[in-house]
Amino acid sequence: MKEITKVTPNMQLKLARERRGWSQKYVAQEVGTDAFTVSRWERGATLPSPHFRQQLSTLFDSDLSELGLFMPKQSEVPDQAQAQATVQPEEDGPATPKALFDPAIPPAPANEKSLVGRDEVLRQLKQQLFTGAGKPVSHLALNGLPGVGKTALATTLAYDEEVRAHFSDGILWAGLGYETDLMGQLNHWALVLNSTLPDPLRRNYPEAWAECIHATIGQRHMLLIIDDAWEFKHALALQVGGMHCTHLVTTRFPEIAQRFAPEKAVVVRELADSDARLLLMRLAPEAVQAEPEEVQALTAIVGGLPLALTLLGNYLRVQTYGGQPRRLRAALERLRHVDERLQLSEPQALIGAHPNLSTSTPLSLQAVIGMSDRQISERARTALRALAIFPPKPNTFSEEAAIRINALPVEALDELMDAGLLESSGPARYTLHQTIADYARTQLTDSQVTDRFVHYYVAYVETQVNDDGAISHEYNNILAALEIAFEQQMLPALLQGVRAFAPLLIIRGLYTVAATHLQRFLDAAQALEDVESQATAWLNFGKIAEQRADYASASAHWQQALLLAQQDQLDGLVAEILMELGTLARQQGQPEQAQQFFQQAHTIAHQLGDQYRIGATLRNLGILAREQGQPEQASQFTEEALAAFQQLGNQREIARTLNGLGILARHQGQPEQARQCYEKAVLLFRQVGDQRGVATSLGNLSRIVAIHEGNLQRAHQLYQEALDIFEHLGDRRSSAQVLHGIGSLQWEQGQPEQAERTLQESLRMLREIGDQHTIALTLGELGIHAREQEHLEQASQLLEEAYALFQELKDRRQEAIALRELGALARAQDDPARASQLLHEALTTLHELHDRREEAMAQYELGIVSRQQGKWDEARRLLNEALTTFHAVNDQRTSALAQRELEINEAQKTRLVDD
């Protein structure tokens, strides 16, 4: 008679659910399973796993004992060595045969928490295994890198209570490896199933055993795990289950996984950083606590690969048991070397050893990766070693680069992909895991690979210098090429690459990285006695200093560059340096000096017939004229610059000049014209693929949309799009500037707390970068917000600091605006005399600069001061003038405020007359 286990319903769990009015479906959704499983728990057909016991305890806010979730006194897992049966009959149902659990299943993990960071993939796998109450999914596949933990996942599933309950007739296990004994596996399964061939004469035929096993399984509900399949035909040969069975294959080969389970192939990824740290913490807690930064660096080096982390953790644990810091530090130093990490090994147990290694062979990364390496062709091996020159995952590289640097056909990449050694990272892009790259790099001996890599990326950065997207994709590869050029003393290539790449690094705010490469560039130029490159180095050093607001150093660097360029009669470079000196003089409030520099550059450009530099100098002269309050001349210069770039057909510079015209139009109270300029600039930048230009124009456009159209939601969308682009490009300075705009907008939208957080984040980034101008703008914005929230002392500190910075920077326009805001603060502090003085001073400057809107804002503030002083007629005049301008520039929000102040003024005057 077949053995039957006694089923005891869990009434405590059921009553706890019903008292709360919850359905089984609701409980299932909350803990991450299905209603059928909850029903089985309540019927006592199975006990929840430790994970689900904890989930239920949390959901019901009750102890396990209150829910009837006691741990059984005997082992929950049957004795695998004896393949003991586990029987779980349904209520009122007939007894079932013993469940067969293959003794070949590797030993269970030492404890229930040993598998770190795999909860989600286990949940996903179980969900797929349990799909369909009637007919289970027939095929599943796990695919991933060598050492990623595919076998560990399959083993965990084999011991999972819910999986065993679902496959009530048992689980079979086949460990294949690259030297598969197919007949041996079939014979083993036949033995476990007590299956006998009807025709002994066919015992040497695999198909005979397959048919026999299939017939024996029949209608049973079983899980057949086929671990470490190296050939599709072997996985297919072991597909012997019946209609109620699921076949689960694990393999390092993506092709096998896709062919075996086209719709149910799951890729097992490396551990996330947090999970990798947790695993090391569990394996070697003393090492992690003693040297957290060193251990964290090692975690990153091995790229979250569980096998590598396990080997590292076990090794470090041994090194720390004696409590000697010296020994741990020595171990960490050894592990920095690739060879040491690859050779790190530990002996295997006799039971559950790796299917591809004899029990006498220690388990190591070298051995595990080497298995795959030995199975591919010589051509693919050559390609793998060449690809190791690329920075490893998460970096990616293009198919074109891989082919050019390999000097091999694309089929070599296909073979590496099929072998699971190379990963896809999007259309025509690839990535190589850190440990595989380490393995291949130790065997790279072809020096031509290095030459091809450096020259490919030097040429790439030169040809793609204006394509932000292309440069962003290959950023790490370009840096790697320049590093190799420096280490190998490939000086001409180094000069060529840094000359093109350094300006892009500066634009992105990566000043330290840029300075490092520029110093190498300068040293190489001096060694080669290349004066032009020396001058170029000093030109770029000056740009870094200027971006950091170190204007004295910027001027000194540019003067050094100018001296070298003039000595060697490098007229084009002279003109470029003069433009930088002119811009610096303009920013420091030295318009006459700036004019001289720009005119000199303009003259040289004309002499050279250099239409590009002619346009650039005219654009700079236009900006200077605009800031000097000469809008007509500014328009003339900028229009001439636009014509020069249009003659060249340079769409990028046309777009940049349109941005300048838009700013000019906005300052002159012509918002519609400004909007048209910005929109056309966006269109042109998109056409030429200049993402940075797109983002800059979107930022400008958002101001028009917010202030003059009153569409704050649309303005926020434009700002967000600009921010996304700058963050993607790694341009921290521009990102911080856009955050400033978003913070201002959030204030207008009535979100003061969010605005404060955004502006403070912008300020933090700007201080790190050293952008003094935008720091001052942000301080001013925070000061205005503090004033409007009646935090007057804080407002005073912020606005005074902003005003002092603008004075130091000699920015007349922003200095006047800061004065105006200080005047408004004095009004709030009940100091009308000081308010009037500051506002009149600001009004005079803004009038000279022809900045209509900002001048009107000063008139508006003065009008309020006059009203508060009882000067009704003066207040009316000032407020009417301001209102007229606000209407002209279509500033709807401030128009409404001015109209309200006029009404208050008239009402107060009338009340006084009546009294």
Automatic annotation (TrEMBL):
PROSITE patterns on file: HTH_CROC1 (PS50943)
Residue ranges of the region described as Disordered: 77-96
Classification of source organism: Bacteria, Bacillati, Chloroflexota, Ktedonobacteria, Ktedonobacterales
Name of the protein in its database record: HTH cro/C1-type domain-containing protein
Recorded coiled-coil stretches: 792-859
Keywords tagged on the record: Coiled coil
InterPro entries tied to this protein: Cro/C1-type_HTH, Lambda_DNA-bd_dom_sf, NB-ARC, P-loop_NTPase, TPR-like_helical_dom_sf, TPR_rpt
SUPFAM superfamilies: lambda repressor-like DNA-binding domains, P-loop containing nucleoside triphosphate hydrolases, TPR-like
Gene3D superfamilies with a match to the protein in the record: lambda repressor-like DNA-binding domains, P-loop containing nucleotide triphosphate hydrolases, Tetratricopeptide repeat domain
Domain of life according to the entry: Bacteria
Domain HTH cro/C1-type: 13-67
Any one GO molecular-function label of the UniProt entry: DNA binding
